[in-house]
Design goal:
- By secondary structure, the chain is an alpha+beta fold.
- The protein is 33% helix and 31% strand.
- It is built from 5 helices and 7 strands, in the order βαααβββαβαββ.
- Strands 1-2-3-4 form a 4-stranded antiparallel beta sheet, with helices on both faces.
């Protein structure tokens, strides 16, 4: 299994490039090319460095290269991102990162995790214990609406 560590600010450009490759490869089965092109052309959100600086980012590395990452907003419980390099998908890396985010959320006392899942990612999140609450159009900051599913996972309370 790849090495895991907390993401740091120096990782941001690499994380965003990985995200773009993953969106292009994984979302092509569920979204038209023009939506993917606009989605991928958007710069990173202003919240990304803040979430990483707050300790909510986890990275999977192999041979010194980032091959996956996940980001949690530790204040709200929103899963901001879970991405794995396309050639490393199917190895359990995203599942492991999600389990680690959940551990982080439980340690913070959060009651639930929630997210807006791209259509291709819904089965992954369902296997991770999330339930679909509603289909929605996610208003992307690039100005497009992306079909998605709002999902949540209640967390066990640990005293």
């Amino acid at each position: 299994m790849p090495m895991r560590r907390t993401a740091v600010s120096a990782d941001l450009a690499e994380l965003w490039a990985l995200r773009t490759r993953a969106v292009r490869a994984s979302c092509a089965t569920h979204y038209p090319p023009d939506i993917i092109d606009t989605w991928c052309a958007a710069p990173p959100p202003a919240t990304l460095p803040l979430l990483v600086q707050a300790g909510g980012g986890l990275v999977a590395e192999e041979d010194g290269r980032v091959i996956g990452y996940a980001i949690l907003n530790q204040e709200t419980g929103e899963v901001d991102a879970v991405f794995v390099e396309p050639e490393h998908q199917g190895r359990g890396i995203a599942r492991d990162l999600m389990q680690r985010l959940e551990t982080l959320a439980v340690a913070r006392g959060l009651p639930r995790l929630f997210l807006s899942a791209s259509l291709n990612a819904v089965p992954f999140y369902e296997r991770a214990g999330f339930r679909s609450l509603r289909e929605e159009i996610y208003s992307h900051r690039s100005g497009i609406g992306i079909r998605s599913v709002f999902m949540e996972k209640p967390l066990a309370r640990h005293a």
